[in-house]
Task: inverse folding
């Protein structure tokens, strides 16, 4: 079974400061990992994904994440926060069936609300 | 290319009634998944369809059902509504079944059960 833990339900940063949102996962198979962002009254928008290959993944809006297998982590970072980054962020891992084959269920973390102060 | 479209956006129902939610995936996407989002439980997987076949189902009671049509459009039905079914229901589509392809989400249907 898969699980995702996002450390910190709320993170507050100043505009221009580094954004770091933490995500740890557990998976019985090599994971596919995703970060999504949700703005109020909207669905989820994909920020970035890790499937295979390079462990440092770049996404939209200046975000990036690094897959660290030894730490089972996939933390999201952005060098300089912008007011428009204020939203809720979700880390997710793809599921797998009993045979270990990945399938389209995503297991989400509980989300981290990012607040950006002027 | 148009995104995932969910209708209606808002719905108010009474306990005991049933409801049908609709989802039109991105053109060319054959996989559709449904998720329930609540403040207490977060995002929970309901089911996944690919080429009109349910591939996987989450841990929800049988009152929750779905189907997918030949044009990949999907519907979700909840019968005998309970207060706890109040949630944002999100539909997502992807190009293939399986977790490698990212999900593209619609804006959801906000269901309120009174």
Result:
């Amino acid at each position: 079974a898969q699980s995702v833990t996002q450390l910190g339900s709320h993170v507050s940063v100043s505009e221009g400061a580094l954004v770091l949102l933490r995500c740890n996962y557990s998976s019985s198979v090599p994971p596919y990992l995703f970060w999504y962002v949700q703005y109020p009254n909207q669905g989820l928008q994909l920020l970035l994904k890790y499937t295979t290959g390079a462990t440092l993944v770049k996404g939209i809006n200046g975000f990036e994440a690094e897959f660290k297998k030894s730490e089972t982590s996939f933390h999201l970072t952005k060098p300089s926060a912008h007011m428009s980054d204020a939203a809720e962020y979700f880390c997710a891992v793809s599921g797998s069936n009993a045979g270990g084959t990945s399938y389209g269920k995503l297991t989400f973390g509980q989300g981290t609300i990012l607040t950006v102060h002027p | 290319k148009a995104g995932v479209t969910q209708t209606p956006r808002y719905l108010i129902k009474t306990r005991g009634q049933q409801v049908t939610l609709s989802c039109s995936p991105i053109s060319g996407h054959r996989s559709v998944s449904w998720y329930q989002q609540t403040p207490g439980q977060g995002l929970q997987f309901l089911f996944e369809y690919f080429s009109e076949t349910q591939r996987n189902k989450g841990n929800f009671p049988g009152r929750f059902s779905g189907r997918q049509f030949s044009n990949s459009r999907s519907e979700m039905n909840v019968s005998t509504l309970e207060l706890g079914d109040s949630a944002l229901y999100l539909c997502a589509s992807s190009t293939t079944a399986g977790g490698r392809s990212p999900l593209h989400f619609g804006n959801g249907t906000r269901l309120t059960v009174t």
